[in-house]
Structures are given as C-alpha cells and as structure tokens.
Amino acid sequence: MKSKKLKEAAELQFDLLNLFHKNFAKIFHEITYGPYNLNKNQKRAIIAIGRNEEIIPSVLGEYLDLQRGSLTSIIDSLEKEGLIFRKGDPEDRRKTILSLTKAGKEYRNWLNAAIQAKVSEILDRLDEEEIDSYRESMENMITFFEKLDERA
Prior knowledge:
By secondary structure, the chain is mainly alpha-helical. The protein contains seven helices and two strands, in the order H-H-H-H-H-E-E-H-H. The radius of gyration is 18 Å and the shape is globular.
C-alpha cells in the first residue's frame, strides 16, 4: 500500500513542478527591466542571500541547484556589480559568508516588489476562496518539505 502511495505522490510532484514552472518560473525571465541586467539565477541568488541575511556558498548552491563552477561565476558577477560581499566566517576561517550590500538590499526590495506584482497578476485569476486554498496548500507543502529536511 505504501509503495502505491509513494508512486502516486511522485507523479503528483512531477505534475506540480511542471505546472509551477509553466505559471511562475517565467517571472524571473519577464522582469527584464530594472537597475541591473541580471539573469534568472543571479536574481534567485539575490533573493536567497537576502532571505537568509548571511549564507555560505555551498548552501546557496543547494538552494539554486548549481554546481561549484556556475555558482562561483554568479557570486563573482554579483560581487562585481556591488550587490553582495564576501567575508570570512569568524568561527571557521575556512568558510566564506555571503551577504547583500546596501545596493543589494535595495535591489532585492525592488525585485521582491516586481515579483509580488507578477504573482498577484497570476493569482488574480482565482477567486478569494481559491487563493485561500492555494495559500493553505503552500503552507502545508512547506511544512512537509521542512520535515523531509529534518529527517534527511
């Protein structure tokens, strides 16, 4: 019985990812205006770094699903743009910590507002009850993903 449920869950997961990308992933490509000409992964990196305030590159790489070489290029380019800075970890000299600069924080705020506007535009196709259901479903999914992380 459990194997059947696992198979069904895996199929639903695939459907969810496809529909999510179809409806929402394009947002990062659509936001082409703004103070910086960043690609999708650079924008995602800015959001991830800002959400965590400080992050080590390996964790950022996990968030973005990028290999070390690609991640290094993104970090270097964002640092060159003046959006992030690197500093040593005071507790472990072998580690580097990434943070947003003042300009990076301002850009992240601008980008979040642009993303919120696009998401609102998409979700506006739903009625209020559907939006509530969507939000509750997202909260449940986050809870389940956190449990998976804890049990890994």
